[in-house]
Each structure stands twice: as structure tokens, then as C-alpha cells.
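FAQ: What does a multi-protein file look like?

Like this. Sequence, then C-alpha cells, then the next protein.
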Amino acid sequence: MELSEIYQDRNGVIGDFTPKISFEIFPPQNGDISDLFEELRILKRYNPVLVSMTYGASGGLSRFSFENIKNIRDLEFNLMPHFTCVSMLKSEIEKHITSVENLGIENILALRGDIPEYINAEELDFSHANELVEFIQSKTTLSIGVAGYPEGHIESKSLKDDIKFLKKKVDAGASAVFTQLFFDNEKLFNYIENVQKAGINIPVVAGIMPVRTLKQIQKMTSMARVSVPKKFIQQLEKYPDDTMKIGTEFTIRQCENLLENGVNSLHFFTLNHSDQVSEILDNIL
């Protein structure tokens, strides 16, 4: 099922307020995919509308073969592989598009990706995500998702400028926006309002990052423009042995507030941990 069918309006509402749950997974560092399959079998009971799959930090496909994608698809998930500008030539993109289509996959997530210091951005075939979206759109009928940043991309001068870049991706052919993690729901509500004012009317799906450790949240906020409620940080620092419990409770309240305010499309960055995500979903569904 394509993105436009899954999310039929801005927040994915189709005449009711049934939450639309999706997950992001990534290839295990040790290359053993069996544990990931078990995690997915657990998450399957929540009937996700799709599962997105990263290919590792560099954006290459070597750590997540198409055979593994096929095996995951055999679990009857609606899959959305990630494609990035980094380490991807036009010829490689075309080859991977064909492989994805041959597997019957209908959606992909097109991202610029973080550019490592050893790569000269000027030598890439695609410098920005809108270029990648436009190229994919010209070569295929795949439905394309893109990233959105409720507080603006860390490299953008302002949220207003960042939404201008989002508009370029949408004009190039994007069908849905999946947001970066955020911890202040007001940031998302404001973002959706500004996105609409910019003439962007495709679905905006809220990216949810359950916190397991204080180190995790410190790393994420150093890499991205993400504000964290002071009280939340204080709790994590005060009770270092209970960070996952505190993070889980925070995410439950966050998701409940989103649902109460009509944002019913939630995309969980699982970090391949079904236990915490399951607890959250058991409390909000």
C-alpha cells in the first residue's frame, strides 16, 4: 500500500481516529539478523501500517542485503527502505530501485543522510534530498517519503528556511513527511501549522524516539536541533538507574497528548528494542 493510501489526509485520519503505527529498524552491528526478526515478530501484533529500514550510518546497502529485505517482507510487513544521497551514485540508485520494485515494495524514504568528513559533498551525484526525490520520481512509480524537522534541520538558518527546503522535496514528488524525533509536542503542532501555511498538504507523520539512557538523549541532541524539557532531563539525571522507566513513561504521556490533539500517525524509532516500544503501545492503544 502506498503512502498516499495509508495516510489519506494531513494526519492520516480516514474518518476515524484509529492510531496509525509504524516502526523504524536498522541492521544489527554484528550482522546477525535473527534477533531482528524476533523483534519484528513481537511488534507485528500492533499491526503497523509500515516498517522503514535504514542501511547503516554510511547510507550504503552492504549491511542490509536485499535477501534480508525479502525475508522481512515475507513476515507480511509493508516495507519502506531508506535511500540516501551519501555513498549512492545515480547508477546505484537505479539498480536498487529495480531490486526494490522486483520485491513488490511500493514505498521508499529519500534522505540526504549525514555526510562523513572523508566524503567531498561536491563529488556526490546528489547533494540534497530534493535532487534524490526528483531523480527517483523520474525513474519509478514508487511512493516517496521524506524527512521533516519540527525545530528545523541543524544546518538550516531557521525553521522558515528549513520548511522552504521541505517544499522543494514535496514539489519534487514526495508523498509524506516523517519527522525527526522531538520531545516537545508544541514544536510539532507549530511545525504542522507552518507546513500547511507553506502550501504543503501531504501527510506529516510524527517521529517518536523512546529514551532508554541519558547518554542516548545527549547524543541525539548533539547531532540534531532538538529541545528537551528541563524537568525530563532532571529526572533522568536524578534517577540514573531508572532511565528506561522514566523514558517510557515520558513517551506514553507524549503519545497520549499527540493522539488527544488529532496527531494519530506515530512512527517509532525502535532502536531494535521491541520491549520498550511494546510497553508504550500497550498503554496508548
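And here is the next protein:
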Amino acid sequence: MNRKLQKILLFPLALIYGLVIRIRNFLFDTGILKSTRFDLPLITVGNLTVGGTGKTPHIEYLVSLLKDKYDTTVLSRGYKRKTRSFLFVETSADVSTSGDEPLQIKLKHPDITVAVDRNRVHGVNEILTAEPETDIILLDDAFQHRYIKAGLSILLIDYNRLIFNDHLLPAGRLREHRSSVKRADIVLITKTPGDLAHDMMKHISRKIPLNTSQRLYYTGLSYDQPFSIFYPGKPGITMNRVRDDMGNVLLVTGIAEPAPLLSYLHEYDLQVTHLKYPDHHHYNEMDLRKIKDKYLGLPDGKRCLITTEKDAIRLRERLNEKDFPEDRLFYLGINVVFLNNYAAEFNKLILDYVRENRRNSNVS
């Protein structure tokens, strides 16, 4: 079906959905539905759209900024995990019990606490009961979870799917009206090209309905060198070596927006075969056979597999190392980069907020 026609047909449902969301937000805004406050710094990182806006790398950026100074915890829903109750995520956990993104954060930062709970208020209470020394909790994907009141709210907007070009579900990808951006303290335009012209930034900034107290920044992504899926602690290799010694890449992705990674690989003139799966995809036996067959179909000795760090968490549990003749299965981690040298200003905002609001007791 033509995409434009599909939007038209779904528009009445979007109107109904939008009305429900407006009523819900009105009930919270007027205090009819109650939000719980806690007497310690809470930072929420979320978005207005379904699909990936880069929440996990931005959470990891905040963890790296805070953990050496404060006892830092991440609380996530644990999307698509098979468990439902509160759980502390350990490095020995598997994706089915913890979710892929919380486990990724825990493996990268084993010195912090990571927990999952569908009910964020219950989750914070559980954390503070078990670890009352907690200084700061980062709430992953909780912008719409208004039963909890965060002290600082960071909203992510994907540069490739700007909210002023989108529509409410199911006609578009917006979870809420564009006006909900006003609830955020900081807005980050993510996945921004590094060479974005200043005039275009000004144009985008004018289109987003912000007030004078809100801050807007632009971030992009940089990629780490490839690391082994099976031996993540092993020193990685360079992309130049991938180009010179291998040249043929099987790219496996189960993320919302693989286009930036695909573009990055093409910068190295690689021959890329792409197996694209839905976000948070749980790889089954048929998928694993297809991955193996596609890999072995590439030129012997001149091939490798590359995936994302999030996919590596899931694939490591399912792939059999013996099925692959060479140790050439890699993942690429990603890092957040602030455009126009605004990292120091953003960092100061975060650190000032935590320092000024640091406490260790909770109040409902």
C-alpha cells in the first residue's frame, strides 16, 4: 500500500490515540494522576518516537560522566525480556531475563548497578531499599512514564526522523504530540551528521517548540574499532585491516536504524552483504543457519562478520564459534559526540544538577 494512502487511512485512529494521550497528560499536569518524587537526583532519557534514537549510547555517556564521582544506577524496563518482575542485572545474566540493552550497559560498566522493572516507581524503591547509598538513578526510556517525576529530563530526537515531519501513531511514529517536547529540560538532536551546516541547525532549532529555559544540543555517533564477538576483552583490529585483509563483510543488524552503520562501512569501500532484522530481534535457529550460510558463502579467507554491540549480546548466546572457520566475527561499539564543542557545557549541566540535588533518602 502506498505510504501516503496508508497515513490517510490511519489518520482517524491517530486522532483517537492523540485524544487519549492529551487526556492522560492533562490528568498528570493537573495532579489528578499523581507522580511520585524521590529525594535524590533522577535523570530520565527518552524520546517521543518509537524506534531507535540512540538512548543506550547516551545513557552510557552519562554513566561514564557520573560513575567516578557518584554511586550511579541505571533503571530500565528491559524491553522484550521474558521476565516481568524487578531484577538486578548481573554480568552473568542472559538477554531473555534482563533485556539486551541493560545487559550491554552492565557488561560495559560492571562497576555500576543496573536494574530492570516495568514499574519505575517500584524499581526505584527496590533500588533504594537494597542500596540506600545510591547517589543518582538514570531512568532509561521513561519520558512517557509519568508516574515518576524525574528531576532532569533529557529528550532525544533523531535527526533522520525529526518530530515536525512526523505524525502520531499509528499514522506515524510519534508516541505523543510534538508539544510534549516542552516537558524536557534538555533536548538532543541525535545521529546528526558531523558536517551539518550551521544554517540547517538554526532551521531545525526554530521548528522545535522550545521555551527559553530549555537547552538544545546536537550529537552524532562515532564508531569504535571492531572487537571479537566471542572474545570482547581481546584487543580489537582496525577498520583499515578489515578493508585490506578481508574486504567482504556480512553485516547483521537487529536495530531500528542500521543506515548510519551501513554508510560507515561503505566509507571503507567494503563489499557488504546486509542481513537486516527488526529492533531487539531474538535470533532463532533459522536466522542462525542463514547467518552461517551467508558468511560461508563469502570468499574464503577474505571475509568477516560485523554486527552492533547490542546484537553481539544476543548473537554471542546463540552462535557456535566452531561453525566459523576463522575468528573474524566482530562488533562495533558506538560513542556519543557533541557537535560544536558543546560537550563541556552539557557535562556541566548534568554535574551541577546531581551535585545540587544529591541525597540518599526517598519521599513518596
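Q: Is there any per-entry metadata?
A: Some entries carry free-text notes. For the entry above: The domain at 3-222+339-357 is CATH 3.40.50.300 (Rossmann fold).
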